[in-house]
Amino acid sequence: MVPFIDLRREYEEVRSDVASAISRVLDSGWFVLGNEVTQFEQAFADYVATKYAVGVNSGSDALFLALKALGIGRTDEVITVSHTVVSTADAIVRCGAKPVFVDITPDTYCIDVARIEERITERTKAILPVHIYGHPAELDRITKLAKQYDLFVVEDACQAHGAEYKGKKVGSFGDAGCFSFYPTKNLGSYGDGGMVVTDNKDLAKKVELLRNYGQSRKYYHDEVAVNSRLDELQAAVLGVKLSHLNEWNERRRRLAGLYVELLDGTNVTLPVEKGYAKHVYHLFVVRLPQRDVCQRSLQKAGIQTQIHYPIPVHKQKAYAWVANATKLEETEVACDQILSLPLYPCLTRDEVAEVAGVMKRACC
Q: Does the predicted model carry a pTM greater than 0.85?
């Protein structure tokens, strides 16, 4: 059997350091907004190369609080993609704004920048590109458009910890960058967690306010806000794991290269890495015309796969009200053909070869 992901393997690599970090927190007796969070925020800001980082309780809230801190609200529109986790659109709606969906490119699955301008209206306030699967969107063109139309850029980097655009970490290009620390992410906690990064001091302070009931100081509430705090235990664990992130990403890249080598020449459409990009392969996503047949064959062979994502946001019942006349053809075709294969740092080369072998025999 080849599991889609096995987090226990990763844990074994860091077990002793994680145990020490957890013990340190328990011994301190301080569990919310203490030194562990402050230290991890600084370490992550340094890693991404931004001036500020604010820990929150999930990637979903990172997106929501970043948009809210930028003043996105009712009557506003935010341009994004439908091929993403629903939380991308949810963050916009929670602010009272409307998501405006743009199609994706068929090779990277990121937003098709050539189609953004036609969707800009007088209500548009921001562009929210998603660095899907760990591949960066075309940030130069996006930030240029944003400057031209006086729009904010909020990067959804929830799947792209350590990914680079032209040698610079994603999350550091827009007004804000948002990360998730869900356990399966390239940098994952043992629960939920998230981060907003920015070079804007005022924006960072506003997110800090909004994550903690809108308190400027204890019992003084300046804003109607939420409880969205990264806790000390998760911050301590993430601090340990951050020191391994580059190595783990390089392992992902090597395993992805092996998949490409073994599946080259088949009818499987493989992931690409654009010349401007450093892909960190949060997911290794292929395309096959007979995707469902192939998935069943892999399942019978004991190989776990997933589909990210079978139903685009604009086709979800909860988002029927934001559907528009614009066709998202590439998005819908991709959703019918994509398949995520096992890929994580502790996957073995033999397991990759086993997956590729089954695919070549049964699917190609």
A: yes
